[in-house]
Design goal:
The structure is a homodimer of 258-residue chains. With 258 residues, chain A is mostly helical. Chain A has two domains: 65 residues, Winged helix-like DNA-binding domain superfamily/Winged helix DNA-binding domain (Arc Repressor Mutant, subunit A, Orthogonal Bundle); 133 residues, Four Helix Bundle (Hemerythrin (Met), subunit A), CATH 1.20.120.530. Chain A contains ten helices and three strands. Chains A and B meet through helix 3, helix 4 and helix 7 of A and helix 3, helix 4 and helix 7 of B. Chain A binds a DNA duplex (30 and 30 nucleotides) through helix 2 and helix 3.
DNA sequence: CGCGCTTCAAGTGCATGCACTTTGGCCGCG
DNA sequence: CGCGGCCAAAGTGCATGCACTTGAAGCGCG
């Protein structure tokens, strides 16, 4: 990722740097949906002025990772359940394009690179979930990058990141074991040029991730506090264990990158 | 009609306003690819400071409509031929999703609205091309909006705008007559819930727009001057008018769509 | 004891100023 | 006559200051 850093396009890069950092923090769930991102705190943390931080926030907002509300502190986006489903749906469509594009056209080097990445995933399996999620996401982004189509790259990256977001909202502990083997199988199919098969695998892969991970709309984790409180408003009969303090918000003052 | 749209999200709206204006200017080809967009000129024109103009430019850059180069004046993006093809390809994938989502689910009011829009297209047929293009684009955006899926809306809008851009680079005078009847037919199929048929129509529609409009890579109008000059640099023997001389990236045939 | 109003601090919205970079013209030199 | 370097104008990069908005604590009133 430090590769094409200073191409000379894109904003100076301090903005880019902040974006990348924030994105990473978000997909690793160091920043949960709803986390506040005050401009000055950001600026201070990254050693830049609010102007830059603001710009970065703007970019991230354009990608749908943060929410900007006028005169309010920016927050990490909290996609609705419906949006989450849509996101996966669209992602599927986009990744099919990737597969179609790539099938039978992968160079040996590319295949090797992909395999190496999956090896890394394997290795990180016992590490923190955050890392597995990031690696799994990066695998897909890597595929997109290999299409060499800037637009496709952008869209797939964006949506993959958004998926991480929804995952961090609506998923349970996470289980990425099968994902890894599915990644391997996908590589094989792509390398062999079995387009249809590869597409089917991608379908199945994403579909299973979605249905396995996306747990029903019942209780969105970091969602609006009012949602969490909702069941308590109904009746005062033994509320389930929810270790969240009511008013003050357990987040303390400003959160920034971990 | 330029009044609302600010539910309270998004930037203050002066930024939004500039974005919208610029987008419109771009898709109507009042601003050709490569056109310069200096911050202060923009700011002056819209009665705001460079800060705002800059922010707008940033948004547009995120959408791929303008290009930002460090320390240089921002310009309207000039997608390469390859990107143009990719764009249409991806667009097709996205619009298929739209169709699938919409098929058989359109309310009477929606159908009416669509038909009214196509009527407007019909009416504008003798007007300037710019308007026809805008209307045709808006038709597709309108469809996307009806899916009620924010992400899909965003992506389709974005890519539709980008297509306008490529059209203004690589298309001939334009002929949108058939597009109108195709729009009508599409509405009918959608209303009738004939998903497969509707998808096929969308395929055909976009494909024909692409292949009809996108005239070969021969002479990209506003594209990098170096490309145009390349064949002349080789030898001074009568430069052919279409020959692809440089060893540049493959203009090689790529699956358009299935 | 609770409820609404006031007041204040945190935070954003935006403009402006200054430094740095790029560009293109001008001039002197070969 | 051409060519390469200097210089000013134009433009961006970024920080900072001030006005405005918002949320909430504090306070008085019922």
């Amino acid at each position: 990722m430090a590769r094409d850093e200073d191409k000379d396009n894109r904003v100076t890069d301090r903005v880019g740097f902040i974006c990348r950092s924030l994105r990473r923090a978000i997909i690793e769930q160091a920043l949960e949906p709803g986390a506040k991102l005050p401009e000055d705190a950001l600026g201070e943390r990254f050693g830049v002025s609010r102007t830059i931080a603001r710009h970065a926030l703007g970019q991230l907002a354009a990608e749908g990772l943060v929410e900007l509300r006028r005169n309010r502190i920016a927050v990490v986006a909290t996609p609705s359940w419906q949006e989450a489903r849509d996101t996966f749906d669209i992602r599927l469509g986009l990744e099919r394009l990737v597969v179609r594009q790539l099938s039978g056209r992968l160079t040996k080097a590319q295949v090797a690179k992909l395999q190496a990445h999956v090896d890394a995933e394997e290795e990180a399996r016992n590490g923190p979930d955050a890392v597995s999620i990031r690696l799994a996401t990066e695998f897909h982004v890597m595929l997109a990058v290999m299409t060499d189509s800037p637009i496709l790259i952008r869209y797939v990256s964006e949506i993959a990141y958004r998926c991480c977001l929804t995952l961090s909202l609506y998923s349970r502990p996470h289980s990425s074991e099968c994902a890894i083997s599915e990644h391997r199988a996908l590589i094989a199919a792509l390398a062999a040029g079995e387009t249809e098969k590869a597409m089917g695998m991608m379908d199945h892969h994403l579909d299973s991730v979605a249905s396995r991970a996306l747990v029903a709309p019942g209780k969105p984790r970091g969602r609006d506090i009012m949602d969490i409180l909702a069941p308590y408003a109904e009746a005062e009969t033994a509320p389930p264990e929810a270790g969240k303090a009511p008013a003050k918000g357990g987040a303390g003052r400003r959160k920034t990158t971990a």
